[in-house]
Fold each of these.
Amino acid sequence: RGKRVRGNIIYITLGEGKVYVEYDGIEHGITQDLIDQGIPQNNIILGHLWEMNAENFGEVESNY
């Protein structure tokens, strides 16, 4: 049998009325799913973009 690989698919933290997406390993991204569930877009903070050089993605609020 093959070996199992374990890891997080998404890593989200909650605080101050915001949803911080720290890591999103879902192919289509989790953001639209959160919006579809009623979370306002301005309350979703894409923290994982800072690891990917955020200035290429425009202004992104961060808690760092």
Note: Residues 24 and 30 are 7 Å apart (CA to CA).
Amino acid sequence: MRTKSYFMKSWIMIPVLMTFVACASNIKKADIPSTANPQEEISKLDSDLNSAILKNVDVLAKDEFDNAVKWHREAKSDLAANQKQDEVLNDLRIARGYLEKSYELSATRGAKAGTLFDARQTALTAGAGTYSELRDELKDIDSDVSNQSKNLEKISAEKMVKLQDRYIDLERKATVLTHLGEAKANINGAKKDGADRYAPNTLRKAELSLKTAESLISANVRNPSGFAAPVATAKNDAMMLNEVMQVISKNGGKLPESTAVTMVNQNRQIKNLESDLSVTSSEATAKEKDLALTKENLDSAKSSIEIQRAIEEARAQFSPDEAETFQQGNSLLIRLKKMNFASGQASVPGPSLELLSKVTDVARALQAAEIKVEGHTDSTGTVAQNKSISTERADAVATYFKTNGFDDINIEAEGYGFEKPIATNKSKEGRAQNRRVDIIITPDETAIH
């Protein structure tokens, strides 16, 4: 029975796999060179997919866009599983092919429905995709539009307006939640605590203010100045209700509503007076502090500019086949390509001394305050072996710096083995990229001027 079950499952999986492959064969693959970095390409595609959503491509060409997302996930999965680099890149070529096709289709389909998608984007900007209570409604509208996407130019004006109105109503609901969500929460919380019994007048006032604000938002969705005042009133009245209920609760529910309101108003007056006193006392030194802060910001800006200039000059000292250089904040990362350590050895090779000498010149030019040396390997060998050899190599390079004029600054050395690959370890090229030494130089910010 187990054998039969296994073969049944296998026969079920075959059509699924064939469908997956067939889908890929129907699309023109994008051109991604075999030398591309898979991780960088995945990140770029992730950004491009998000940009496509902002252009409604996910709705206008849903099937193609969904396939792009699916192959993007496949690429991520293959990279995580250490599949061959070209397999990952092939996933990405298919994903980009689908994305390009979805753009092509969306341009044609959306040409006569611009106002519909303007309404959708405005709803998204208002937060329709952010609030959990609105996501299902947005999904339903998007689904209806996607089902019509292939024939948008044939949809009647009446039906197009109805779809557009649904997005507009979603925008209104999102705007209400943005401006009145907290007030609604305060009122609902007070009602759960018995506000209709203990503070009915304050509750009634808060609910009336809320309804007024909602009405004015609906009439002025894209004109905040038209509803700013009633929204402020609604927030204040809801907060008042919350504070009144707190006072009543602290007194065991036996305090009359009118007395609680008086106590809250008195507390607010005291807080306002305390705030006024604080402002008055701080105004005396405000100008002096502003002047000091301005000078401090100016000095900091000048220092940052000088550091940027020094780092850019340092980066120019290395040719592409010697090292890659990256700026990390106010530090310079130098990724050495020509260390050429002998297999299993940690001694600095003679031919690499010229490159290290160039690094020391750069460190002097930057007036290094700290240097960190990181050793990295590929995944060949055991974890312990790679950790050990990467640490020994980092120590050897660090010792070189200490014996060549940098014995008076902090120099750290650390080996990471193959913990931090920058390429797949499944290919010869990828392993070569992973066998490296990274040097991070942090300049003395006070010395660079």
Note: The CA atoms of residues 17 and 23 lie 10 Å apart.
